[in-house]
Design brief:
This protein is of the alpha/beta class. The chain is built from eleven helices and eleven strands. The chain has a single domain, classed as TIM Barrel (Alpha-Beta Barrel). It is 37% helix and 16% strand. It starts with 12 loop residues before the first strand and ends with a strand. The site of zinc ion has 6 residues, from loops.
């Protein structure tokens, strides 16, 4: 594939559409007066009846006070896209990883689409290389998922998690953890091998007791739209326990759309809904909370303007940078995935 054919403004993946979902994007919420960052999103995934490309997503986000995002990869192509796009986009920093549900597929089945020939270790080696690129500020999402991966995949999942912890430590990067139905095993692993200095539980799903344990270890809890869900009292209890200096927020777009738009496509511009819900829960002013969370976010990842972008974000330039940095072709077609979040 030539550079001219490459365009990272195109989506790399497409969300699987389930029956009966409403596919329109929700309206923009009222703008925040103090800006925040979305520390976990997947702008490479197309969703909705009219998928929105990353630049329009970031424009909409800016319009409501969401100043920037951490764009998170979950396999080799999406991690390459994340690093390449962050390199030319001032409002984006990148996180790279093999997702815990993809690790067993790289181990035995050629990755999510069967096209990877190098096995899991070679995929992790590519993540290690990407972790050294400018504007890649985190390793993630990595961790353990006992909900979607069965017994047969757990050895590969654990091996991948430990390798990602090592990459984060060697590169001095933050780490974003995906923990689904695996709280005890994730914590045991972190304590056994030693967590990176800045460790974030993406889309925290534990309770107050776990939040206290994370607080004691200096780990950060990132709250997603799930905190607005009626049945998520455990998350609101956790909020009461974790020091405000250890709170981050995210959308995990296009998944986990906050109330009252649950089920519709999610986007970074909907982050103010989650911020306001957390502020209400804590009985504090949204602007005060936003200032605190922005300070936390910059402590974990650095500032979005700390490293220069490679060039103005023009599609041809993005393609050229992608080709230089990834040294592989991007997939020509957009592949459907389930829930990478
Ligand atoms: Zn995610």
């Amino acid at each position: 594939m030539s550079d001219a054919n490459m365009d990272t403004s195109a989506h790399v993946r497409k969300r699987e559409q389930t029956e009966g979902r409403e596919l329109s994007y929700p309206p923009l919420p009222e703008a925040l007066t103090v800006g925040v960052y979305d520390n976990h999103t997947h702008l490479e995934i197309a969703d909705g009846e009219n998928p929105i490309d990353y630049r329009e997503q970031l424009d909409r986000a800016s319009a409501v006070g969401v100043r920037g995002v951490i764009q998170v990869g979950g396999d080799v192509p999406t991690s390459q896209w994340s690093a390449a796009t962050a390199a030319v986009e001032p409002r984006m920093l990148a996180a790279v990883a093999i997702h815990p549900n993809e690790a067993p597929l790289y181990d035995t089945a050629g990755g999510p689409d069967g096209s990877w020939e190098g096995g899991l270790d070679a995929a992790i080696a590519e993540i290690d290389r990407l972790a050294g690129l400018p504007r890649v500020v985190a390793v993630g999402e990595t961790g353990l998922d006992f909900f979607r991966t069965g017994e047969e995949g757990r050895a590969a999942q654990l091996r991948s998690f430990e390798a990602h912890i090592d990459i984060a430590k060697r590169h001095g990067l933050a780490m974003q953890i995906h923990d689904r139905d695996a709280h005890a095993a994730v914590i045991e692993t972190l304590l056994r091998v030693g967590a990176p200095e800045r460790t974030v539980f993406h889309c925290f799903s534990g309770d107050a007791e776990m939040a206290q344990l994370c607080a004691d270890n200096g780990w950060y809890l990132s709250f997603a739209g799930t905190v607005t869900f009626k049945n998520a009292q455990n998350l609101r209890d956790a909020l009461q326990v974790i020091p405000r200096s250890q709170i981050l927020i995210e959308t995990d777009a296009p998944f986990l759309t906050p109330t009252p738009y649950r089920g519709r496509p999610n986007a970074p511009y909907l982050l103010p809904l989650t911020l306001r819900a957390i502020a209400a829960e804590l009985g504090t002013d949204a602007s005060v909370l936003a200032a605190q969370i922005t300070s936390n976010t910059e402590l974990v990842y650095g500032r979005w303007d700390a490293e220069p972008v490679a060039s103005a974000a023009h599609p041809a330039e993005v393609g050229a940078v992608a080709a230089r940095s990834a040294n592989t072709a991007f997939p020509a077609s957009t592949e459907a995935i389930g829930g990478i979040a």
